[in-house]
Structure to design on (518 residues):
């Protein structure tokens, strides 16, 4: 990776965020792709919360227009499940089909082969790595207060 | 002599044959047990104050085992609001999808140092709750009822220590001989289901005892139930609800003052409650319907908020707007009564993590 990385401590877990890309508030990374738009994948923060991914499915077809926060699929892991939502508005051009056969690639190579989909869109609301870390920190203080310091054990 | 325990069977709302089958199987299995009296009531959530069913329950002053189609927390605090109070009896029956993590998670909750409103004016008796949807077939319930009965028959001394206060002589007398006081407390009117408790000791020695059946068909109701073991009296619900459901009592404690002002199907206030203390027993989401923990055992944590779904506050505001418009009023969006905890963070309005935090306890990080 060219630009190094930033680190955010989730308790004693070290979540790393490459600085060669931007981040969406819903905890996805966004790397520009040739011809415009972005490739998205889960940030280390999201993957840490999910842990082992078992199952991934998409509820829309490629080449579909998207509005922000539109529901596009679902994920299930050893610890959690979630619907998935569009990180930005635009047009979804492509899914990572390899993940459908084996979603555990998300755990193995989250910033590379574990990418999720590509969207053509402005992405003006995407955050710089530094801004994303501030986003995490602001939320984390609240999380820690409520968690009674469990993560720091 | 073992004290009698009343088993209350709260029927399902619909006459679903499977549900009726389980209810009647329990009645049948308990008829020959002379340590219990069986009372069959309509769905307890629907019982209105002053209804025959409520009066019947008020007449029961001893330990009670309540089998209902409600999560135990929901059933317990529904009864509490109706003045049917008691200590929450510990049952060992777990839902088939639950695992043992639940108890640990609950202990964790209680270790929190925030002051809770708690149960008030609790008489010296326990109310045990069995969730009829938690198991298939009557056997596990019968086994648990037997276990509770054996516990109840030996706990007279232990219970006193557990409650921790010194009971007044008359409460002690009532406790030790519930049958006697039941007779006195029994509701008077002729149409009331009077022959409930301790109806006749002679019966107890002569074969099957017919259960008490309350034949009411109450209209379905929809209203919030506050779990005071979780409630911190923060008043966010009273600020948020614009339909006048909530009020405060003389001690400035929150209460569901006008339950029937509540908008059918709307669970919005439960989403804004920071302690998940507000239960809508009939809501389809277990966490809102009063399951023991935020993500009921076995169910996975829902990370949807984290991954970009509208926040609980946004959903609550949408639900409230729908009801306001349906009632011919103006939608207010997030402008009115949105929880104060958001106001402290002007740069991070309604962060999606807020909604996740309560669930993180289970993550085992």
């Amino acid at each position: 990776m060219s630009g190094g990385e930033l680190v955010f401590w989730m308790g004693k877990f070290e979540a790393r965020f490459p600085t060669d890309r931007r981040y969406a508030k819903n905890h996805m990374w966004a790397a520009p792709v040739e011809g415009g738009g972005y490739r998205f994948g889960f940030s280390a923060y999201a993957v840490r919360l999910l842990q082992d991914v078992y199952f991934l499915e998409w509820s829309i077809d490629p080449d579909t227009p998207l509005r922000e926060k539109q529901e596009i699929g679902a994920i299930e892991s050893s610890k959690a499940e979630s619907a998935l939502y569009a990180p930005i508005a635009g047009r979804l051009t492509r899914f990572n089909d390899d993940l459908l056969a084996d979603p555990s690639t998300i755990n193995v190579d989250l910033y590379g082969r574990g990418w999720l989909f590509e969207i053509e869109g402005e992405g003006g609301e995407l955050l710089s790595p530094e801004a994303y870390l501030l986003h995490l920190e602001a939320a984390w203080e609240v999380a820690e207060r409520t968690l009674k310091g469990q993560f720091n054990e | 002599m073992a004290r009698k325990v009343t088993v209350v069977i709260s029927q399902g709302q619909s006459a679903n044959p499977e549900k009726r089958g389980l209810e009647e199987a329990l009645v049948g299995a308990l008829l020959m047990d002379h340590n219990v009296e069986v009372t069959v009531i309509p769905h307890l959530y629907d019982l209105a104050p002053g209804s025959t069913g409520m009066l019947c329950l008020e007449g029961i002053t001893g330990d009670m085992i309540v089998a209902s189609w409600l999560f135990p927390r929901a059933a317990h605090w529904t009864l509490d609001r109706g003045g049917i109070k008691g200590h929450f009896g510990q049952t060992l029956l777990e839902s088939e999808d639950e695992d043992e993590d639940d108890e640990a998670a609950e202990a964790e909750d209680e270790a929190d140092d925030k002051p809770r409103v708690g149960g008030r004016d609790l008489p010296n008796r326990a109310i045990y709750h069995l969730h009829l949807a938690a198991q298939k077939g009557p056997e596990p319930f019968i086994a648990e009822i037997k276990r509770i009965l054996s516990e109840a028959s030996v706990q007279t001394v232990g219970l006193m220590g557990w409650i921790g206060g010194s009971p007044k002589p008359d409460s002690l007398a009532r406790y030790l001989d519930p049958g006697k006081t039941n007779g006195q407390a029994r509701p008077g009117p002729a149409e009331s289901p009077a022959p409930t408790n301790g109806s006749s000791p002679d019966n107890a020695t002569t074969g099957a005892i017919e259960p008490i059946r309350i034949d009411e068909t109450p209209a379905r109701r929809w209203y919030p139930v506050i779990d005071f073991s979780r409630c911190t009296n923060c008043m966010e619900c009273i600020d948020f609800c614009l339909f006048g459901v909530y009020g405060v009592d003389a001690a400035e404690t929150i209460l569901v003052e006008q339950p029937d002002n509540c908008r059918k199907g709307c669970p919005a206030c439960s989403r804004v409650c920071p302690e998940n203390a507000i239960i809508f027993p009939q809501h389809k989401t277990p966490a809102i319907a009063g399951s023991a923990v935020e993500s009921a055992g076995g169910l996975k944590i829902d990370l949807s908020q984290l991954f970009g779904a509208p926040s609980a506050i946004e959903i609550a505001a949408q639900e409230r707007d729908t009801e306001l418009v349906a009632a011919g009023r103006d939608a207010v969006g997030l402008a009115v009564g949105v929880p104060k905890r958001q106001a402290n963070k002007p740069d991070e309005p309604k962060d999606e993590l807020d909604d996740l935090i309560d669930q993180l306890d289970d993550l085992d990080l």
